[in-house]
Structure formats: C-alpha cells, structure tokens
C-alpha cells in the first residue's frame, strides 16, 4: 500500500536528504586578533572545505547519498512491512548518529579548529561557526523517519489483528 502515510513521511525524509547534497551545513571563519582572516570553510557535501585546509577531507556526500538511497529503498519496500520497518529503524539510527556527530563538531569543534590553525600559522585565532541552510534539514529528517516507523508499526498491528480474527 504505497499510498499510506509512512510513504509520505519517507518521501519527505528523502527530500531532506537530497537537499543536504546541495546546501552546506555550516561555515567556519577563523579570524586573528588583529583582524586577518586565516580560514573560511564550509562543512557540507564535500566535508570540511576551505582556504588553509589540507585537501583530502572525507566527502560527506557519500554519507548523504547512502542515507538517501536507504530511505528510497524503504519507500520501495511497501509490500514487505517487516523488512521496511527494519530498514527504516536502521536508517533512523544511522541518521541519528550523523546528527550527533555534526552537532557535536559544531558545538565542540571550535577548539580543534583553533589549535589546527594555530599550529599551521602560529597565530592565535578566534573561530566562529555559522549555521547554513543545510543545518536546518538534519532534524526534520529524524522526525519524518520516526513518524514513518510509527506508521509502519500501526499497519503491521492492523494486519496482525485481522489475522487473529480469521
């Protein structure tokens, strides 16, 4: 039954994951105490990319694409509710780990960036993290996945109750 509410929730979660491929999550600015800009970077689909950073950062787009494909697979498994429920729960846990990682780096990573720039340039800097549009698409995806899990469980309970009546 592809027209169920959980399919809509999974489609919204898929849309949020696709949006994360096009917009950065947050940007970082590192300014010295005398006003010189040492680092301007964006954290998004390509990982942490910016001036003054070493190349070879892990592209986050691989994670975003993997979670989007997993969400799309959950949509296509509408005929196999137990497997759909299992994959949606796995998707929820993986996305929760991603959100915890991004938010912890956002709130606690300033000291890491400060020491990295200080070691590279030998200058004390003040690091500022600025939220970008992608930052606001991380949490709704969790909510949509949670609502999809509830909808799948509700359908499974309905089918099981009808089996008991027969």
Task: Report on this structure.
This protein has 166 residues and is an alpha+beta fold. The protein has one domain. The protein is 60% helix and 16% strand. The protein has a 4-stranded antiparallel beta sheet, with helices on one face. A hairpin with a 4-residue loop joins strand 1 and strand 2. The radius of gyration is 20 Å and the shape is elongated. The model has no long low-confidence stretch (mean pLDDT 81).
Which shape, going by the Cα principal axes? elongated
The strand order across the widest sheet is 3-2-1-4
Please report the distance between the alpha carbons of the first and last residues. 21 Å
**What can be said about the biggest beta sheet?**
4 strands, antiparallel
Mean pLDDT: 81
Query: Can you tell me the number of structural domains?
Result: 1
Task: Write the topology of this structure.
Blueprint: H1 5-20, E1 26-32, E2 37-44, E3 47-50, H2 61-76, H3 81-108, H4 110-121, E4 125-131, H5 138-165
Antiparallel strand pairs: 1-2, 1-4, 2-3
Helix pairs in contact: 1-2, 1-5, 2-3, 3-5
In short:
With 166 residues, the protein is an alpha+beta fold. Helix content is 60%, strand content 16%.
List keywords for this structure.
166 residues; 5 helices; elongated; alpha+beta
